[in-house]
Every structure is written in C-alpha cells, then in structure tokens.
Write a structure and sequence with these properties.
Layout lengths: L8 H8 L2 E5 L12 H13 L4 E4 L11 H15 L5 E4 L5 H14 L3 E4 L9 H14 L3 E6 L9 H8 L4 E6 L4 H11 L4 E3 L4 H9 L5 E5 L1 H5 L6 H9 L6 H25 L6 H10 L16 H17 L9
Parallel strand pairs: 1-2, 1-8, 2-3, 3-4, 4-5, 5-6, 6-7
Helix pairs in contact: 2-3, 3-4, 4-5, 6-7, 11-13
C-alpha cells in the first residue's frame, strides 16, 4: 500500500525499488479460467524466495488475453496476499485510455504501491505520442509509475525519449527491456542518476561494474522462481548483493551460470520459433517443473509441444544431477 504523496514518489522508489522484483505468471485451469488458488500459491512461493516485490499482468502475465474483470481479480488476489507488507506493482497498459485509468484506479484502491505502463501499441508510432499517453496516466494517479520499454509494444523509445518520460512527475524510472544493450547503457548513463533504470538481466550488473554505473533493482524477471527454491535462493541472494554493488563472481559462476545458460538457450530458441513473441509457454511450463501453477497459454499463443516439454524437463533434470546445488528437484 502506497505510503507516500505524489511529490515523494521518486524518494519512495529510490528506497523501495531494490533487489530482486519478480514477474508473476497468470495460471489458468484446464477449463481456461483464472486459477485463483494457483495464483495465491504462486505468490506465496515467490515471497518465500526472499524477493523484494512483484508485479502482475505484465508480459509474462498474458495481460492482452485477460478481461477487465480478470485483471481486477488478479489485482485483488495479489493485494490480499501482499497485505500491505510486500511491495506490489500493477501493469495497466491498455489501448483504451479509459480502460487504462480504470485499471490504475482499481490498483490504487486495493492497495498497490506502483504502476507500470507501456505504449498502447497499434497506433502509437511516435515518441511524442508515447510521452503524451504516459503523461495522461501520471496526471490521473498519485502512484509512482515505471515505464516499460520493450519492442513487444511496437515502439522502442530512445534514451532521449526515456529522459522526457522520466521528466513527468511521479514517473520514477524505466524497465529497459529493449534487448538493445547499447540503448540500456546509454539510458543508464543519461538518466541513471535521476531515475531508476533497470534492465531485467544480469549482464547489466557486470557491465555497470565495468563502466561505473549501478543498477539498484532487477525490475523484474522470472529468474527467481525458475532458478531458486526457498532452501537454495542463490539468484535472489546474488541480485540482492549485486544491486548494492557487491557482485559475487564465485556465487554466480558456481550456482547461476549453468542454469542461466540453459535458460538463454530455451528463451532464445522459443523467441526465434515465434518470430519475436515472449516465450510465455516455456516460462509457464518451467514454473510447473518447479512446483508452481501454470496451465496453458491462451490463443494466439501456443503451448509447448509434448516433445518440447519432455526436452525441457530432461535438460533441467540433467542439470540438477550434474550440479545439484544449481536447481531444485524438478521430478
């Protein structure tokens, strides 16, 4: 629950958006309904890993496939589970301004701390349109806002455009998920001292050490619940320390590099197969192998084939057998 005023949003974000933030998937039942019990179980599991906070209905949450009522219900469940004790963020991007504002109002009403918004896609072709759209949201809510810069939304903002977005009151920073490493570096260099810039991958932490900039939060990815277990939360430990400037190379190389390389293989392979769509089906099945509720994806996405599921399970099992401390039991 937000405990700050609009003019305090940046200070709140500086102190709160730290360490490992998670991205929740949206589990569905076999009849394609929202799996509320599974969602609650997933949230409790993610919290048990030591994560700092979490967001819902983002790219991995399949927001485009959800009705307004389903998005509201997911907000309600996450807010209830967080109980004002665990920071939470709601993704409110929509092609309809009224729908976006309704989502933001509902999130605020049930106790969310933060909003995340991306370009409304389809008709957004210029940076000026994106900036204007974000400004309309910012004027309508006192909540802090993170902007989501990703090619999934049809336009990737330049570092200069991101600076203009972060000049909007109560926009506190950027999830820089463009997959353009130079853009991420340029954005850190340009506005990293005044706004929170976060690329959701560890490479940026090593690059920051090399180039002299510091990312204070991993905002946000699925690596915590795909890589960690409550008894072996090496990823969360690594990120917590690295985002404070203490990069433990030995911890990363021993416990994380092998599973990260496996993840990259599957991530990149699935994105190539889908011509650039996020690999939601792969991530959901990986979550199931870690004991979480996932279920199928909704059209037009397609679930992994049985042979792909078997191969992913085998890859994780082999990794566990070779290096038991890397990943929990996926049998």
């Amino acid at each position: 629950m937000a405990r700050y005023h609009r003019d305090e949003a940046q200070d709140w974000a500086r102190s709160t958006l730290r360490g490992q933030w998670s991205t929740l998937m949206t589990p569905f039942t076999s009849s394609d309904e929202l799996d509320q019990a599974g969602l609650r179980s997933n949230i409790r599991h993610v919290r048990s890993l030591g994560t700092t906070g979490a967001g819902c209905t983002w790219g991995m949450g399949e927001f485009w496939s959800l009705t307004r009522e389903e998005r509201f219900l997911i907000y309600d469940v996450l807010a209830d589970e967080a109980a004002g004790e665990w920071p939470i963020a709601a993704h409110v991007t929509h092609t309809s301004l009224r729908e976006m504002l309704a989502l933001a109002d509902h999130a605020r009403g049930v106790g969310f701390d933060l909003l995340i918004v991306a370009p409304p896609y389809f008709v957004t072709k210029t940076e000026a349109q994106v900036i204007e759209y974000v400004a309309l949201l910012a004027a309508a809510t006192p909540l802090a806002i993170m902007f989501y810069n990703s090619p999934q939304f049809g336009i990737v903002m330049s570092a200069e455009g991101l600076k203009r977005i972060c000049d909007i009151p109560n926009v506190v920073g950027v999830k820089e998920a463009s997959f353009d490493r130079q853009l991420t570096i340029d954005t850190h260099r340009l506005i990293g001292d005044t706004a929170i810039i976060s690329a959701p991958d560890e490479w940026v932490l090593f690059k920051g050490r090399e180039d002299g900039f510091q990312q204070q939060v991993m905002f946000a990815n699925t690596s915590d619940w795909r890589f960690d277990t409550p008894d072996a939360n090496h990823y969360v430990q690594f990120i917590d320390r690295a985002t404070r400037g203490d990069i433990d190379d030995d911890l990363y190389n021993k416990h994380l590099r092998p599973i990260k390389e496996l993840s990259d293989k599957w991530w990149q392979g699935q994105m190539q197969k889908s011509k650039g769509s996020l690999p939601v089906s792969m991530v959901k099945y990986w979550g199931e192998l870690m004991g979480m509720a996932g279920g199928s994806v909704r059209p037009p996405l397609a679930s992994l084939s049985q042979s792909e599921k078997d191969e992913l399970a085998r890859d994780l099992r082999v990794l566990r057998d070779q290096i038991p401390a890397v990943v929990g039991d996926t049998r």
